[in-house]
Amino acid sequence: MSAPGAYVLLEDGARFDGDACGANPDEAVVTGEVVFTTGMSGYQESMTDPSFARQLITFTYPHIGNYGVSQEAMESERPWARAAIMRAAVNR
Length: 92
Hints:
Layout: E1 5-9, E2 15-19, E3 33-37, H1 43-47, E4 55-59, E5 63-64, E6 83-85, E7 88-89
Parallel strand pairs: 3-4, 4-6, 5-7
Antiparallel strand pairs: 1-2
């Protein structure tokens, strides 16, 4: 089964197509400020950091998810970012 389609549409009309992963169907459309982070680790910390509230985080490291997640790495009780934009989601 293939992932549902998704895209990022910027104010200037630029569109970037990709696949949705882990998307909440109740939030089929999300809006927010697109920001980026250059860290090679810390994706879970970024997603749960309240300073990223209402933002769409673009991860510049190409593989996100390759070392898993843990309760100890949570910055807060829930994710605050609206979306994670990445090249490849790894689920091992």
